[in-house]
Amino acid sequence: MSPKIHTPGHEGVGRVVAPPLHRLLGKRVGARWMASACLNCEICDVNETSCPKQKNHGRNVEGTLKQYTVVDERFAVPVPESLEAEEAAPLLCAGVSLFSAVQSSNAKPGQWVVITGAGGGLGHLGVQIALSRSLKVLAVDTGSSKRDFCLSLGATAFIDYKTDDVVAKIKSLTNGFGAHATICTAGSPQAYNLAFRLIRPQGTIVCVGLPGLDYRLPVGPMNLVQMGMTIKGTSNGTREDMETLFGMAEMGEVKARVEVFELESVQEVVERVERGELVGRAVFRIPE
User: Fold this and answer.
1) What would the mean pLDDT of 13-37 be, rounded to a whole number?
2) N or C end of the chain, less CB within 10 A?
């Protein structure tokens, strides 16, 4: 986080209160990771989320964990009134990132997709989005509560990375070849080291979770040449992706599982996340 930024957060939902007479005044909008992009370069012509001049809430512009924040009107995402704020907020980053990740996986209907961290705040949304595309989901996480949760969402199988032989189990479910794609939402080196052992030749790995900056992927040119694998990364989706995802949520195809906390509970939530105790997404209610 930039030392000039005092407020984190990039999944905020609220109503526009200023300036007066603005076209969005009184409308409910979302502020997400992508605070702005130049929309005027060769990169934006391809995908604005990779704009080298982009600004991000909570990184180099003020974030959303406060009562009032400033949002670029071009990137203020209209939030359907039919969705509760606590259901809509996680879609602004976790949801649209996984929407983009599933798209980037190149997986086709009926093919196998592994999602690591499947019971977490990002992963459980990825499970639902993948299922909406008729993909077969292999959920990797740990604990009975996350097992029950992932299977209730429709995952074909749950593999516990603490108690199961993950590689052997996934190979046994995929004719010995491995999955067509692995979406790595877990931000640990162990998750990434495992991910490369779970895909088949010509498979795709999509990087979402972020290990430390000194981590290096366990793959070299020989692996890429021999397997013909593809490695991609995604941090967010476009404004059009966001609109599509909200439409899916309105139709009931995607629903964030959330625990709602008061703002003063930040430290408690951080500790629970570090212990891996949260199932789904934590949402903070900001005092009015």
Assistant:
1) 89
2) C
Could you tell me which residues are beta bridge partners of residue 231? 205
Residues 1, 58 contacting (CB under 8 angstroms): yes
> Which alpha helices (H) appear in the chain, and where do they start and end?
42-46, 85-88, 94-104, 123-132, 144-153, 166-173, 189-195, 221-227, 239-250, 266-274
The mean pLDDT value for 256-265 works out to 88
Tokens of 84: 């509760």
Share of the chain above pLDDT 90, in %: 75
User: CB-based burial of residue 34 (10 Å sphere; 0-12 exposed, 13-18 middle, 19+ buried)?
Assistant: buried
78's CB contacts (< 8 A; 6+ apart) are: 27, 28, 29, 30, 243
CA distances from 52 to 38, 41, 47, 73 (A): 9, 9, 11, 20
Question: Which residue, 245, 243, 234, 235, is CA-closest to 77?
Answer: 243
Percentage of residues in the chain having pLDDT higher than 70: 99
Q: Between 149 and 1, where is the model more confident?
A: 149
Question: What's the CA gap between 180 and 234, in Å, rounded?
Answer: 18
Residue 282 pairs in a beta bridge with 259
Instruction: Judge contact between 83 and 94, C-beta under 8 A.
Output: no
Residue 66 has pLDDT above 90, yes or no: no
- Closest CA relative to residue 233, chosen from 272, 203, 205: 205
Give the C-alpha distances (Å, rounded to integers) separating 18 from 64, 70, 149, 288.
16, 9, 41, 15
How many other CB atoms sit within 10 Å of the CB of residue 172? 11
130 CA to centre of own chain: 12
Tell which phi-psi region holds residue 206, choosing left (phi > 0), alpha (psi between -120 and 50) or beta: beta
Residues recorded for the chain: 288
**d(C-alpha 7, C-alpha 256), whole Å:** 24
